[in-house]
Amino acid sequence: MRRAHVKLFVPGPIEVRPEVLQAMATPQIYHRTPEFRELYAELQTKLKKFLYTEQTVFLFTSSSTGAMEAAVLNCVKKKCLNLVNGAFAKRWHEITKTCGIPCEALEVPWDKAIRPEQVEEKLKTGEFDAVTLVFNETSTGLMNPLAEIAEVVRKFPDVLLLVDAVTAMGGVKIEFDELGLDVCLAGVQKCFGLPPGLTVCAVSERALKRAEEVKPRTYYFNFLVMLNSHKKNETPATPTIPHMFALNLQLDYFFEEGLERRFARHEEMAKIVQTWAKKHFDIYPEEGYWSKTVTCIKNTRGISVDELNKTLIREYGMRISNGYGDLREKTFRIAHMGDLTPADIWGLLRAIEDILNLR
Ligand SMILES: Cc1ncc(COP(=O)(O)O)c(C=O)c1O
């Protein structure tokens, strides 16, 4: 029998509050009206507060991959350094290559973090004018040291730092201006707790200036075309208005909870899962860089993750995630993001203990 609702502990899409789902069903408005411009402006104010920025926050009617593509299309004039230590970082390198943009990958083993010294060494060559970094690598549950890497990149005034914060934004504090980031993007089906289809993307003045210097390579994803409409509180093309209603409401819930409290709740959930994982299994990435939103657990017991998931879904109405790509059976992943609570996490862990006889 198919359950009506299987609770998602996968790294996106995740659980969505019924009220937010309901907001998606708000009667539609025309996107060339004062009502729409009011909605857009309200979102802009809330997103700036949420990302600790005075700069521009674009909304992409696409998943994160579209905004990753936009970032390199608009921000690389000379050559891009793609920092690669996981599947999504590798994807950004593939995207850059596919767009015909000169680039080079700095690859490190997937269970290791990117070190700022490695970035500095590369940038010293003077070859690069942009760097891509996946802050929280969802495929491995590894959180790269964003602040330290940003500090190094800022030593090179002509180099832009483009950050995929897909499974971090909304779960971890990101002070866009303070860190000196140039692009920071995240699809809303992760820590934001919305259905997929919209991506939030903060863009610096430096990045917009770079976009002016680059020969246009795209229309739909062109920052300058977007900026032109943005100044009028509009989008160039028809946006996903249902998501905008939902995001507007969800940001109110964020502020009601308190941003600091929200980030602390994510830390608490991460600690619960990681302590549990160390007791019963092991954790894939090196210690010190464990993600605060998704834990990638080494399958040291050789369990069948597929069987575990089948039982979880059938008996408990919960779903976790298998490992990603080559790590499929070697690891499994538990997401602890969005509006989940420590009590939800304990419920899941107790269910797994029951199924695997771990108690
Ligand atoms: C870190 C990261 N980057 C990029 C993506 C790509 O997102 P999408 O498939 O929504 O475009 C994902 C998806 O899980 C991700 O986790």
Write the layout of secondary structure elements.
Blueprint: E1 7-8, H1 18-24, H2 34-50, E2 56-60, H3 64-75, E3 80-84, H4 87-98, E4 103-107, H5 116-123, E5 130-134, E6 136-137, E7 142-143, H6 146-153, E8 160-164, H7 176-179, E9 183-187, E10 199-203, H8 205-213, H9 223-230, H10 241-257, H11 259-280, E11 282-283, E12 294-298, H12 305-316, E13 318-319, E14 321-322, E15 331-335, H13 342-356
Parallel strand pairs: 1-13, 3-4, 3-5, 5-8, 8-9
Antiparallel strand pairs: 2-10, 6-7, 9-10, 11-12, 12-15, 14-15
The structure holds pyridoxal-5'-phosphate (PLP).
Pyridoxal-5'-phosphate binds at residues 12, 63-65, 88, 134, 138, 164, 166-167, 187.
Distance linking N and C termini: 29 Å
CATH topology of the largest domain: Aspartate Aminotransferase, domain 2
Q: What topology, given as strand order, has the largest sheet?
A: 2-10-9-8-5-3-4
Strand content: 15-25%
Give the SSE order as H and E letters.
EHHEHEHEHEEEHEHEEHHHHEEHEEEH
Number of DSSP helical runs:
13
Q: Mind describing the biggest β-sheet?
A: 7 strands, mixed
Number of domains: 2
List each distinct ligand once: pyridoxal-5'-phosphate
Mean pLDDT: 97
Describe this structure in words.
The chain is of the alpha/beta class. It has 2 domains: 7-14 and 258-356, Aspartate Aminotransferase, domain 1; 18-256, 3-Layer(aba) Sandwich (Aspartate Aminotransferase, domain 2), CATH 3.40.640.10. 42% of the residues lie in helices and 16% in strands. The protein has 13 helices and 15 strands. The strands form 4 sheets. A 7-stranded mixed sheet has the order 2-10-9-8-5-3-4, sandwiched between helices. The chain has a 4-stranded antiparallel sheet with strand order 11-12-15-14, with helices on one face. It is globular and about 60 Å long. It binds pyridoxal-5'-phosphate. Residues 12, 63-65, 88, 134, 138, 164, 166-167, 187 line the site of pyridoxal-5'-phosphate (PLP).
